[in-house]
Amino acid sequence: MSISIPFIETQSVNEIEQFQTKKLRELLQYTQSHSAFYKQHFAKYQINIDEIKTLQDLQKIPPTTKDDLYHYNQDFICVTPDQIIDYVTTSGTLGDPVTFALTNNDLERLAYNEHISLACAGGSKHDIYQLMTTIDRRFMAGMAYFLGIKHMGAGVIRVGNGMPEFQWDTIKRLKPTIAIAVPSFLIKLIEFAEANHIDYKQCSIQKIVCIGEPIRNTDFSYNTLGKRITEKWPVKLYSTYASTEMGSAFTECEFQKGGHHHPELLIAEFLDNNNQTVNQGEEGELTVTTLGVEGMPLIRFKTGDICKAHTEPCPCGRNTFRISPIIGRKQQMIKFKGTSLYPPALYDILNNVPYVKNFIIEVFTNDLGTDDIKINIGAINPPIDFDKELKDHFRAKLRVAPSIELHNPDALAKIQNPEMSRKPITFIDKR
Q1: How far apart are the first and last CA of the chain?
Q2: Cα separations in angstroms, 404 against 224, 369, 408
Q3: What is the DSSP letter of 381?
Q4: CB atoms near residue 87 (< 10 Å)
Q5: What is the phi-psi region of residue 369: left when phi exceeds 0, alpha when psi lies from -120 to 50, beta otherwise?
Q6: Which of the listed residues 285, 304, 327 is the one where a domain comes to its end?
Q7: The whole model's pTM is what?
Q8: pLDDT tens digit sequence for 324-343
Q9: Mean pLDDT over all residues of the chain?
Q10: Residue 210's pLDDT is what?
């Protein structure tokens, strides 16, 4: 099946809003009839869904939180067990898994989303994708990529995560044109290729869709991780943002000025700390209402991710807004010595230090009851005064310096990549 740009994404802002308003009315009726959670939610807050006539009226409904999903998980399921085809899980606020139930139609929606998202990033049925992420362990993303590539009619090679030698052997044998990978793993691929005299700069891969970690600053320039990859490997990187709860993605087009919104799949809002819509161009918490979901639809779900919308026209022809790179997770904001920080600001500095091979940032409450930071680094041949050098880097960029603790990189890697982890652990919140 070939999809270039979905028709709705080329329509005027008013036409997109009218389309979404109709879909919202259908969603409210559906959840009122099938969702135990939203029946109670509407009753608790005295919401008459017949009074929700516009997208702006959505603000009358209090948002749904990750805690709601954790405490009332089963109440969100809108279908009977015999209609559920697939079960996936995500980590809840309290750390235990939260189950998501998908029907056959939900899987079709997931495939459609990934098809149009990968097409947005310049993919087509003529490409061969190397999937460098797991498709098992109740993980939605790997399955979504596979279904989307299949929907597109392109080829897919399910290598899975890790295993640099196997990745390069597959690239040599099967000549994939696009890879889907966590960006920090690309550094390991480059290091393996250089250590084993693999001419990776001449390989078949032309583009890489980067998942799970940011590769751009808020002005869309490459951050340190993005620079480290592209300075070594002449490939084009595409950023994408997605979550299990949304069952959809915001992916960059060829102009790489933010992840495009798919209005047929999501209503998106950006909220402040009081759950009010921020002014245009301001950063806020991305809050989504899922459209076309049967198993577990969500209304005004607060993702916890801070970003902002870009509404200026995009040359690609899509008339949808785009989201900026994620600035940080709301719950991970650190107030350190009077300065507000998000972990990505720390990551960007550490990724720019050649002898730092890996790291884990720990945040905890000190004896004074305030936030404190310890950065565990795995380093190879660090200078004698590495502690001072690193702290000077942090002071220059952020005005404050956390404590630094040196570790063996292999020992730290075992902590960073536990057996059931879907991506490297770089942040531990002990507050």
Answers
A1: 49
A2: 20, 20, 13
A3: S
A4: 11
A5: left
A6: 327
A7: 0.82
A8: 998 888 778 787 886 778 88
A9: 92
A10: 94
One domain, residues 220 and 270: yes
Range of the domain at 243: 1-327
Q: Is the model's pLDDT at 2 over the cut of 80?
A: no
- Residues 242 and 341 occupy one common structural domain: no
Q: Which of 189, 184, 190 is nearest to 214 (CA)?
A: 184
DSSP string for 348-372: HHHTT-TTEEEEEEEEEE-TTSSEE
Final residue of a domain: which of 327, 347, 367? 327
CA dist., res. 289 & res. 172, Å (int): 43
Written as six digits, the tokens of 127 are 């490409």
φ/ψ of residue 180, rounded to 5 = -120, 120
* Encoded amino acid at 165, one letter: E
Looking at the structure of the chain, the number of domains it has is 2
Please state, in angstroms and rounded to a whole number, the distance separating the CA atoms of residues 377 and 408.
8
CATH of the domain at 416: 3.30.300.30
Is 277 in the same domain as 343?
A: no
Q: What is the pLDDT of residues 76-98, one digit of tens each?
A: 999 999 999 999 987 543 456 78
48: which residues sit within 8 A by CB, 6+ positions away? 42
Q: Which two tokens stand for residue 283?
A: 């950063």
**Strands (DSSP E) along 191-264, which ranges?**
207-210, 236-243, 248-252, 259-260
Ramachandran category for residue 48: left, alpha or beta (phi over 0 → left; psi -120 to 50 → alpha) = beta
- CATH no. for residue 308? 3.40.50.12780
